[in-house]
Amino acid sequence: MTESVRAFFGLRIRAARKVRQVLDELDAMGRPVKPVDPSGLHVTLKFLGDTEAQQLTHLQQALRAAVSRQQPFDVVLQGLGAFPRVARPAVVWMGVSEAGDPATSRVTDLARELDRLLRELGFPAETRSFHPHLTLARIRGRPPERLLQLLADLQTAEFGCQPIAQVHLMASRSTGRRTSYVDLDTVHLGAGD
Asked: Does domain 4-186 have CATH number 3.90.1140.10?
C-alpha cells in the first residue's frame, strides 16, 4: 500500500488580535458556524490533494524553484466575504492582498509559478481564478442572521498587515472535529540570493 498525504503549498498567517476577535465572534455563533483553529491560518497557494509520499522530493524541489528569486513582502488582511456567495455562505474568508502596489501581487505570482512548475510534474493546472484568502470558518446548515450582519459590517474592514518570509509545503490531517496542518518543508524567501 502506497503512503500518501493530503498536500498543499501555503503561506502561514499569524492570528493577530483583530483576526482573533473575528474568530471569537464566529465561534460565539454556535453550531452552524465552525471556525478554524487560529494556529492553522494560512493562504493556500496550490492544493494538491492526496499525494504519494514518494513525490514529496519533487514537490520540495518545485517549492525551492518557485521562491528562489522572491524576496520577503508584506500582505494586508482586509475584508470579509463568503464562498459561494455572501447570501448563502459555506465558507467565510478574510481577504489577503499585497501591501503597497495593488497592481502587483507576489502572492498571486507565487501561486501561478507553483501551478506552472507542478504542471510539469503532472499535476493538473488550476482552472479557477486565484483569490488569495484565509478561510476563517465553514458553515453547516442555515447561517445565523448574526453571521450575515457580520459579513456586511466587515466587508471592507482592515485587520492589519503581516510579513511573509516563508512558503510551506504542508499537509492537512483530520482528527475528529479538527483539522491540523503540519509543515513538510519550509523555504525562506530570499534564500536563493
From this structure: yes
